């Protein structure tokens, strides 16, 4: 079973009119499947088609990708929407035409699961169920970092659930905990393990790591666990921005002050920290306490609070229950909550200057659409 869209849902996912969607698909030379309904046939788009169209539009019409960025999604409070928003933002940025790599840093592998991969699935089970071998998770971030027992090329580690132009995933499984432990041991023996991901990205972008070319990615996102472990610290230090979800309730607002302390420590030790972007999640403007927290956060953190929030919507957990699994933006692109996430992604892209003004170009090679 795979996700398919008729014109209206496909256009909504890309923020285009149906006419522009059709024209872009034709101009890009994309072979879109047609389904016969009565005497006429209609186009049926798949997620991979949407990402290919988005990339084609960005590289041919602009606004073109202008700058690369790294983002960590983190708030030490658990269950606040980090994984939900990381997965949906990764999809939203790829639907803007960016090449995106999203890295699951939580050994629970929730993001991995939300992208359709069960880290407990064995090869034997996959075969017995008639599933492709690629559904099996064998490797995680630890296999990409120097010092790994079994270092692997990027191509063997990443998953591409929605094709080449969709977000690529570095999955997680229970063994990711060992990487965190290894970084801790390195730190205790005097190494600067907090810089592990900063170096990995710098070297991968510069083509200095054989088999791990990170230069193709416009955006790298880390979905951090709800703890300040070594991997989280390393991800924060490697990031240009930390997107921190809050649900406008006391615990998550309080967690922000803890996050601010971590960022200040980072400045003291390393002379830099990622830009804080506070993202209101599960927002319900009808609730008075919600509005109180918005005002308090705005007073304390000013512009760090993003003007766009994401509403509370059952569509998020519903997308998790749907089969095949996919973030809401792909599962139900016409949902009002999906609109919120797309608007947040536009805001973040603008803040980080990820795109040129319309028509401009970095040196992005137009890419072939399969
Ligand atoms: N805007 C929203 N409206 C309704 N439900 C939401 C919203 N955002 C997230 N959720 C739900 O909240 C639950 C927790 O979300 P999620 O797993 O993303 O949090 P998390 O911060 O990553 O958790 P953890 O700290 O364990 O990593 C999920 O069931 C998700 O579907
Ligand atoms: Mg999570």
UniProtKB/TrEMBL annotation:
InterPro entries in the cross-refs: AAA_dom, DNA_Partitioning_ATPase, P-loop_NTPase
Gene3D superfamilies registered for this protein in UniProt: P-loop containing nucleotide triphosphate hydrolases (3.40.50.300)
AAA domain: residues covered: 70-268
Name of the molecule in the record: ParA family protein
Native source species: Azohydromonas lata
